[in-house]
Amino acid sequence: MKTNHFRKLAGSGAFILVAGFSAVAATLPTVIPNAVLNLTVTNAGAARLNIDNPGNQAWVIQSSSDLRSWSDVELVKVFNGAFNRNYPLPPGGKVFYRTFYDSTRQTISNTTTNALRLPGTLFNYAAPALPAAFLVNPIQAQDNTPLNNMITDAGATLGRVLFYDKRLSTNQTLSCAACHQQAHGFTDPRRVSVGFDGSVGSRNAMGLSNARWYQRRHFFWDERASTLEEQVLMPIQNPSEMGMTLTALTNRLAAEPFYTNLFAQAFGSPAVDTSRISRALAQFVRSIVSVRSKYDAGLTNNFANFTPQENFGRQIFLGQVGNPRATCVACHGTDNFVPGQAINNNGVEFPFVDRGLGGVTGVAADDGKFKVPSLRNIELTAPYMHDGRFATLEQVVEFYDSGVVDNPNLPPPLRVPTGPGQPPGAVLRLNLTAEQKAALVAFLKTLTDPNLATDVKLSDPFNYGD
Question: Is residue 54 within 8 Å of residue 81, measured between CB atoms?
Fold first, then answer.
């Protein structure tokens, strides 16, 4: 009977697929904890092997025509928790495949050549092409790159590998990229992120686009990390996120041949230490640069490439039309769309459920203040706000139009202007029309850089088979 199904022998780590016939299973004794293997027939008529294996073992792939005599097809290695490959199924014939773990055949090493897919010439991270506005003030002054950790091609390459490596979590199931996904502007499409053990957080993972130009230099929503170099190590050690100790991490990485090679290229010697991990990760994060959006193209032609709706939305964003006029640009200024030196309370709630910066400083005047990320790629980074409360840009625009909550720390841009010496004004209500709201959303979408979500130099570098 022809079938496209497989059968798993629970706990054995072994599968057999019969092309064109019923699937059967064979018993092999070795049990690999947390390993999940699937063999299925694809629509294209191939046997598809999928291995989910946090332990990164080697697996034997064999084939047979009669279930009695087996021949090796290949020995494959799982390099970062997963392996995928298609194997041929002859038309009109039959073939049996099986895969299993053999403790005596763990002979494939994790080298730079076989574990990673890196270019022969390193990608350019150190000197990206930037628009003219990024090379002068005020944006130039927003650059938080320290003099002792300038971006190098080799350093950012190492940081890229670290960013995607599940070894950074205690059970080797979670990487930085799990909560900062390239396709979503390096953020998490879930409202709040989930840790290595299933623990649920309380905040949405922040997008990383153009983090290099966050002028206040402090990171996390509540700015509890004083530098990016400090920030990148904190999720690794957080017991609810990745659950590692730095000692365990350095020992684990130092045991990998490809890491000693990458550390030598980046820092001149193969030594693996916390400072180098921190510096490499920070270099990669700062290399996530977004400057190829429709907006950027518009800067060169007076926005002739914009639709009338997008240009109308730009005028609303800049406060050039409307009564009262929107103050978006007050907190998202310059072509980088960041707040400069300010950190603001944006009126999402009162009383405060999350104190934000106030929870770090203990100062009541800081309650409800959160870091303001760049609006670049905002279309990709839903849901929005520190707690992911808004699912769409339309909801965000509606909030700033009519939903800002009054509280003692609400800043002037979100209040009706008053004269000098006068008490703070009422909460600003923009009273935008449906047409104006749609135009504002259309403008925000022009900040999307389509290259960011697919740029290979920012993508997962590990070898997963196919």
Answer: yes
The whole-model pTM stands at: 0.92
Q: Both 172 and 239 in a single domain?
A: yes
Share of the chain above pLDDT 70, in %: 93
256 burial type by CB count under 10 A (0-12 exposed, 13-18 middle, 19+ buried)? buried
Tokens of 276: 């180098």
CA 273, CA 263: separation in Å to the nearest integer? 9
Domain span at 214 = 114-289
Based on the fold, state whether residues 279 and 243 are members of the same structural domain: yes
Burial class (CB in 10 A: 0-12, 13-18, 19+), 122: middle
d(CA 383, CA 191): 6
23 falls within a domain: yes
- Separation CA 11–CA 400 (nearest Å): 54
Cα–chain-centroid distance for residue 442?
24
What is the tens place of the pLDDT at every residue in 113-155?
999 999 999 999 999 999 999 999 999 999 999 999 999 999 9
pLDDT tens, position by position, 40-95: 888 877 888 999 999 999 999 999 888 889 999 999 999 999 999 999 888 776 78
**pLDDT value of residue 26:** 36
